[in-house]
UniProtKB/TrEMBL annotation:
Gene Ontology molecular functions: carbohydrate derivative binding; DNA binding; DNA-binding transcription factor activity
Protein name as it appears in the record: Transcriptional regulator
Gene Ontology biological process terms in this record: carbohydrate derivative metabolic process
Domain HTH rpiR-type: 1-77
Upper taxonomic lineage: Bacteria, Bacillati, Bacillota, Bacilli, Bacillales
Keywords: DNA-binding, Transcription, Transcription regulation
PROSITE patterns membership: HTH_RPIR, SIS
Originating species: Cytobacillus firmus (Bacillus firmus)
Length: 287
């Protein structure tokens, strides 16, 4: 059993007290490794019985077995970059390194397909078609995906803005949001506080919040109306990138096909531009 996966699988079935224990375990595994169930309960404001029942809910025999698994799995885990490098070293020991890496990417995409509900995806596409304004944010490893999504949504439907805390007036941007706005937060481990705070503020303004993340119990879950988990067998956020971009491409495709009249109108707009002033053809030269 992989402890993190077991918690994610059962999380929605846990009581509120047990969910507190689950979140605290993932954030502070060292405390579980050395403290008693009673001490953990006091720390998070639940009873010792609740902590023990949490163990039973994830199919463990009790708190002692949980502690053993924490020490073995969570405390000895490599860093994200360490896990990424280790997985690639294993592939490098086999022939056809390029094919091996790309086949792993295909595996992650297939796992993501299994993770995502078609009904939730349809709701997402419909929301992006009907909403007035779309706001997208993502920091550090999530920034490239957020930038691509906001740019491409701007092309196919318009009124899409990338929020950058380092340059934007966040207060002004958030006050522009209302029930007709959609806020998309891309948030992967390590989860940036700015992204979570923006999602919280957008929610308070009445915006529809969509979370795209790497875990069913990621912090963004608390504020998301829709949550999409991009699965990766490894913890590394680098390995999650191909599946993430594949999912975002499916979103763009869905919006384009389901709202084809607007897409066609925007396409014709683009084609009217004097493109030679902006672009150079293959083999061409600058004047």
């Amino acid at each position: 059993m992989i402890l993190k996966e077991a918690i994610e699988k059962e999380f929605n079935n846990l009581s509120k007290g047990q969910q507190k224990a689950a979140k605290y375990l993932l954030d502070h595994p060292k405390d579980f490794a050395v403290k008693s169930a009673g001490e953990i309960g006091k720390r998070i404001g639940v009873s010792e019985t609740t902590v023990i029942r949490f163990c039973y809910s994830i199919q463990l025999s009790g708190y002692s077995e949980l502690q053993k698994m924490v020490r073995k799995q969570l405390l000895k885990a490599n860093s994200t970059l360490g896990q990424y490098f280790t997985s690639k070293v294993e592939l490098a020991e086999k022939p056809e390194f390029l094919a091996g890496v790309m086949e792993k990417d295909c595996l992650h995409i297939r796992e993501t397909i299994e993770n995502i509900s078609q009904d939730d995806f349809d709701v997402l596409v419909e929301r992006l078609i009907k909403t007035k304004n779309v706001y997208v944010t993502g920091l550090r490893s999530s920034f490239a995906a957020a930038s691509w999504l906001s740019f491409t949504l701007g092309v196919v439907r318009g009124n899409a803005k990338l929020i950058r805390p380092d340059t934007d007036d966040l207060l002004l941007t958030v006050t522009e949001m209302d029930k007709d706005a959609t806020f998309i937060a891309i948030s992967f481990d390590r989860y940036m506080k700015d992204t979570i705070k923006l999602a919280e503020l957008a929610k308070k303004q009445g915006a529809f919040v969509i979370g795209i993340t790497d875990s069913a119990i990621a912090p963004i879950k608390e504020h998301a109306d829709l949550l999409f988990q991009i699965h990766s067998s490894e913890k590394s956020t680098i390995d999650a990138a191909p599946a993430l971009f594949s999912f975002l491409n499916a979103v763009i495709a869905g919006v384009s096909i389901q709202d084809r009249d607007r897409f066609q109108a925007r396409k014709e707009q683009y084609e009217k531009l004097e493109s030679e002033h902006f672009f150079i053809q293959p083999g061409g030269k600058l004047d």
